[in-house]
Structures are given as structure tokens and as C-alpha cells.
Write a structure and sequence with these properties.
The complex is a heterodimer of chains A (385) and B (121). Among the domains of chain A are: 143 residues, 2-Layer Sandwich (Gyrase A, domain 2), CATH 3.30.1360.120; 77 residues, Elongation Factor Tu (Ef-tu), domain 3. Chain A is of the alpha+beta class. Chain A contains eight helices and 19 strands. The two termini of chain B are 25 Å apart. Classes of the chains: A alpha+beta (385), B alpha+beta (121).
């Protein structure tokens, strides 16, 4: 056991502005998307996960890409319409002070990345996945630079504070926090620092994501951690939290081969961009996506709950019954859900099989384990809508 | 009674021709929170270095290899309901299985306590 990993040159890994803090707090550092990141701290993944759902967890997500899109005309509508060239979402109707979940699509209707977009009045603020940020920046440049100045923001850190106590903790550090509702976003002075704050996250809990200048990040994180309700949380728990929340992980549950409809993300495509809407299509893969929105797709992402206690992991084949030889689908994310005290997974099944309550079988170490198709989220969201 | 160790972080307690096998405290600290243990069936014949059991943490599965050859005569049923015992008492209550030793000479290749402590230092 404990087969040693191939040696990684630690010096070639990038560091976020909170690297020293992670090490000082006992972070177990691992490579992730080219960064040296904490997978857990001393408490362990289970405790960190449960603490986030009962109290408040602090996450360093500075490895993600933050990008400002500034309209050359000075009119935000121009930036919004330009971004709509790349996403199936309605960005024009996104009001100042609001944020929305979106995806970059490719010409087959598959996904290049998923992202958050916020309207900050005079510019759009975009947060993309770490592994895709270089490609996304180039992509935005290639398609929007006639209308927008694309400004990557590498000198900003991103800190998430998630859990039922997040509001009470953060409200101690500035005004205009408690009044925010889910997906509100805007400039806020936090601990005397000019930040960009959204009431959003990747855990299914109420919480905030705070963009802070890199040189103030350690001071802010340190101040938040003084509150005994707050613990630092690593990437291990970040993954188990988002899995229980039914949230996709790019590169695993969604990728260039999955359309938003197959991925059960059609809720994120507003009416205005669909057939019959005021600005139909106009994004890559629109033909496939619009047709799937009306007729459904051949396969669908579903939640899966193991009937036993053995975790079922990414890559496991799914079968219609215990004996058949032809797989009908695959598990794209899977692990143990600490809040459920049970294994949970997500995968794709042919649409006729993808009904809640149905039974499928995953092949794990040569055995066929029964999985019950389950609605998601597995754990109830606690967003302050 | 002798306790021996493998380079792969398993321990064996030898009493006569029976070996009780588990994973070391070092192993559990590297694995993280254990959520599931899969044990071999009683009666199974194991060859040295064969994958015998699986330990699942929140993030990943790890194989536990048979440190010596023999027949599985008993498994620790408690681990089914309490996998976290591996984290809290790896060297004691969280034993995995007992084997009837097939070949005593295989014990010669294993480490004693002092050698194992050096190995993980």
C-alpha cells in the first residue's frame, strides 16, 4: 500500500498568496492544476467537511482565474452582448450587482469550461477554472477584443468562506454583507480592504467568495481564521462538499464532449437564448443545444447512491443489471459523502435509464455493486435566496 | 509473540503458526480518514505480495498486500461498521485478518520494530 507517487518538482509548482499560511497551519500540500495546494490540514477531510456544514470553512481558491472584461465603448451592454457570443446564458439581462453561472461551449455543443460572470456596473467580472484559465484568457482575447479589453487579474487572491456561520463571521469585517442574497456581487470594504464579494460558492452552503488584492490576502485570511468558528479547509473537503451538492467538476462531470443538456445544466440557459427567445443562439454549438433543449439529449448526468458502503469512483462502468456485459454509462465523480455518511457518485446514463429511483450496477474490483439513481443535490442547499 | 513489518506499512503479529495482520499507524496517517475496508474471504489462499484487502479513504482506494503466504482463517467484522478504527487504533483493534502461515521462512524477509521505525523516519 501507499505506492509512492512519481517525484514532482515542488519548485516548479506555482504558489497562491496564501501558501505560507497553508504551510504554517499544517496543510498537507499536493500539486493541483500546477499549484502547490493544501488537500487537507491536521483535522482531516471528514472533519473539515463536517465543520463547513455546521460552522464556517475558509478555502483558498486563488488558483482559479479572475478576469475583467471592460467594454471599450464604456457601455456594459456591449461587453454583455460580446460575451453572449461564447456562452448560452443571458448576460445582457444580468443586472449590476448580480452574478450568474455560465459555460463556454464548443461547436459540437460540448463545454470548454464553466464559470461565474458578475456585472460590476462598468465591467464584467469572470471567474474560471484554474486548469483552463490560460486557454480561457486566450479564447476571450480571440473573440471579444474588438469590443472589450480583456484584463486577467493575476494579482488578486480568491478566498471562499462557506457555511451557516459565514455571514455572522464576515459581517464583523464590513458593511453590506448580511443584506446580500444568493448571487449578489459587488465591491465591499472587508477588514478595511477593497474587495469584490459575491454571495456564492461551491459547497451547497450559504457563503461568500472574496476577491482580494494578493498583498492583502494573508492579512484577510488570518483575520477571518481568528474567529473560532472558522477553520481552514483543503481541496479534499472542497471536493466532497461539491459532490454532495451535486455540482459539476470541469474535466470530470463536464468536458468538451458533454452538452449543458446532457449535463442537466439546462436550468442555466435562460429563455432569451432558446428557440422563441429574443436572442436565440449565437453561441458555439447552438444548433445541437437548442435542439436538445426541445427534444432532450440521448444521455443525462444523474446522482447515484450506493446501496452498500463501498465508494464507487470516477471511471467505474455502469450496467443495467448485475450480469450484462455491455456497459450503459460511466461514473464521472464518486467518493464518500461525510454528511450522508455514505458513498455518493455522479455519472451519465442513457436518458431512458436516467430516472430517479432506478437501479444500475457499477463494476468495482470485479464485483457489480447496486446504485440507486438519486435526485441532486444529495444534501439540501442552504442558499440565502 | 513477535511483531514484524513490511516496507508497505503492514504489521504482522505472530503467535505460533497464526499471523494477525493490519496496517501501521504511519499508514493510516498517510491515508487520511478511512471510510471503507474490504477484507478477504475466510478460507482464501493468499500468496505473498498478492492484493489481499482494500482500504478506502475519502479520496482514494489503497491495496493492502499479503505480507506472507497462507490461508485466511478469520477477518475483523468490526471494520465493516467502524472503518474509522483504522485511524484511531491501527495497531490494535483495527486488525484486518488472521492467516495460517504457509511458510515460516518468508518471515525472514520482514522488518522488526527498529528497522520499520528507521524505514518511516
Amino acid at each position: 500500500m501507499l505506492a509512492t507517487d512519481a517525484q514532482t518538482s515542488q519548485s516548479s509548482l506555482k504558489r497562491t498568496p496564501l501558501h505560507a499560511l497553508h504551510v504554517a497551519r499544517g496543510g498537507k500540500m499536493v500539486p493541483f492544476a500546477g499549484y502547490d495546494m493544501p488537500v487537507q490540514y491536521g483535522c482531516g477531510v471528514l472533519k473539515e467537511h463536517l465543520h463547513t456544514r455546521s460552522s464556517a470553512g475558509l478555502f483558498d481558491v486563488s488558483h482559479m482565474g479572475q478576469i475583467a472584461l471592460r467594454p471599450k465603448s464604456g457601455k456594459i451592454e456591449d461587453a454583455a452582448l460580446a460575451l453572449e457570443r461564447l456562452v448560452p446564458q443571458d448576460i445582457l439581462a444580468l443586472a449590476p450587482g448580480r452574478q450568474r453561472y455560465a459555460q463556454f461551449t464548443n461547436k459540437s455543443g460540448g463545454l470548454l469550461d464553466d464559470l461565474m460572470v458578475a456585472n460590476f456596473g462598468d465591467h464584467l467580472f469572470v471567474v474560471v477554472n484554474a486548469a483552463c484559465k490560460a486557454d480561457d484568457e486566450a479564447y476571450l482575447g480571440a473573440h471579444l477584443s474588438d469590443v472589450c479589453i480583456i484584463e486577467p487579474l493575476p494579482d488578486r487572491a480568491l478566498i471562499a468562506l462557506q457555511g451557516p456561520k459565514a455571514e455572522a463571521v464576515l459581517a464583523n469585517f464590513g458593511d453590506g454583507i448580511a443584506s446580500m442574497r444568493f448571487m449578489d456581487a459587488g465591491a465591499r470594504r472587508v477588514h478595511g480592504i477593497d474587495c469584490l464579494v459575491s454571495r456564492s460558492g461551491y459547497t451547497g452552503e450559504d457563503g461568500f467568495e472574496i476577491s482580494v488584492p494578493a498583498d492583502a490576502a494573508e492579512r484577510l485570511a488570518g483575520a477571518l481564521l481568528v474567529n473560532e468558528a472558522v477553520l481552514p479547509i483543503g481541496l479534499g473537503a472542497r471536493d466532497s462538499l461539491r459532490l454532495e451538492a451535486g455540482l459539476c467538476l470541469y474535466g470530470h462531470d463536464i468536458d468538451a464532449s458533454t452538452t449543458p443538456v446532457e449535463a442537466a445544466l439546462e436550468w442555466s440557459i435562460q429563455k432569451s437564448r432558446r428557440n422563441g427567445g429574443v436572442r436565440v443562439g449565437g453561441f458555439p454549438g447552438a444548433q445541437s443545444i437548442l435542439s436538445q433543449l426541445e427534444q432532450g439529449a440521448a444521455r443525462r448526468r444523474v446522482g447515484l447512491r450506493a446501496e452498500g458502503r463501498a465508494p464507487v469512483r470516477e471511471g467505474a462502468s455502469l450496467f443495467a443489471d448485475a450480469a450484462s456485459s455491455e456497459p450503459i454509462g460511466t461514473v464521472t465523480s464518486g467518493g464518500f459523502g461525510p454528511s450522508l455518511n455514505a458513498p455518493v457518485a455522479m455519472g451519465y446514463l442513457p436518458t431512458p435509464h436516467a430516472t430517479a429511483g432506478g437501479l444500475v450496477f457499477a463494476e468495482v474490483r470485479g464485483q457489480r455493486l447496486p446504485l440507486r439513481i438519486s435526485p441532486m443535490p444529495f444534501v439540501q442547499n442552504t442558499y440565502r435566496r | 509473540m513477535t511483531t514484524l513489518y513490511t516496507a508497505d506499512h503492514e504489521w504482522l503479529r505472530i503467535e505460533g503458526d497464526v499471523a494477525t495482520i493490519g496496517v501501521t499507524d504511519y499508514a493510516q496517517s498517510q491515508l487520511g480518514d478511512v471510510v471503507f475496508v474490504e477484507l478477504p474471504k475466510v478460507g482464501r489462499a493468499l500468496k505473498k505480495a498478492e492484493a489481499a484487502a482494500v482500504v478506502e479513504s475519502v479520496k482514494a482506494a489503497s491495496d493492502v498486500y499479503a505480507p506472507i503466504s497462507g490461508e485466511v482463517i478469520e477477518v475483523n467484522e468490526t471494520l465493516a461498521a467502524e472503518p474509522a478504527l483504522v485511524n484511531s487504533d491501527a495497531a490494535g483493534k483495527a486488525w484486518f485478518f488472521k492467516m495460517k502461515i504457509a511458510d515460516n521462512t518468508e518471515l525472514g524477509g520482514l522488518m522488526d520494530e527498529a528497522a520499520y521505525q528507521k524505514h518511516v523516519a
